[in-house]
Amino acid sequence: MRRVFPTIRWPIISAFLGLGYLLAISSLAQTAPAGAGLAVQVVTKVVEKTIPCPDGMTQRIRITARKADVTVKGWDRPLVGVKLRLLAKHTDRAVAEREVAYHQYTLQPNGASIDLSNGFVIPQRAGRLQSQMKAIYEVSVPNRADLLINDSFGDITLHELSGETSVQFEYGKLTLNDIQGKLTVKSDYGDLDGKSLNAQFTCTAEKATINLRDHGGTSQIQSNYGKLSIFPSSSTLDELSVEAEHTQVTLVPLKIDDFSYDLRAIYGQLFLPPAWSEQFPRRSKEQQHILYQPRLRKPLIKVVNKSSPTHLFTASDVPVGSR
Fold first, then answer.
1. Please, are residues 93 and 29 in contact by the beta-carbon 8 Å criterion?
2. Contact at 8 Å (CB) between 108 and 115?
3. For the chain, what percentages of helix, strand and coil (3-state, to nearest 5) are there?
4. DSSP-based three-state secondary structure for 44
5. What's the whole-model pTM score?
6. What are residue 206's DSSP bridge partners?
7. pLDDT tens digit string along 179-229?
């Protein structure tokens, strides 16, 4: 009999590997924290597979990851390429070698989708898990792929995608670079760092730090109990809407007149450029509202923020290291 690790339910996979898999077992000694006196042994199992994906927009690629770091990069080939590393860490090499076999995974087509997933199952006779378990995905997909990612307790990195991408994650970090198409993100206790987004972007975040640089496209962002910093791009931003509560919001355009603004602070404060202090005096303790339209029509940045400050200043006012 087998018992499943109590906090996670995992898919059952094939008991053997088919053609196209490459397995390798390796170990790496790492220095344990000072005072521990023992070296940590890392035992790694590597699986590689290539899955045909003639039309990335027809087959949805689903990645269901647990305690895993996931990197996905778009390419112009009709294939999904996967390299999956499964790790077990323990000071006793024999324990790590035994428990690396507890990893379970699926890398295969499933009807109209391609499923990539991982977990681990502990045999009932084995007792409690002793090793630190981790998985690392390196995935290449058609750059216009329909992609769905769900991850817990791991970091996600996405590069050069232009299809429809949906990400749901918790207790990790999402890094985005050069993303187009449609992107939907839901984060619980997971931070987000993005550069050169030019997508139809929807984000819902709880207790997250979000940094968006050279930000373009059309965005709707909701943030609760977090921190949000946006460096909008004057050449690619079409519209930006933020609804925030208990979240410090900072807007850093290259020039103030690159955009129109509709800024509202409810039980919070707007910190504005010095030139605006007389033009937009604060008239109420409960609420402050500013509408600003430059002479030429510009993309709109709209922010409604409750119970936290909102800052607006130019990129020249920000230290280089924090941009």
1. no
2. yes
3. 10, 60, 30
4. strand
5. 0.85
6. 188, 224
7. 999 999 999 999 999 999 999 999 999 999 999 999 999 999 999 999 999
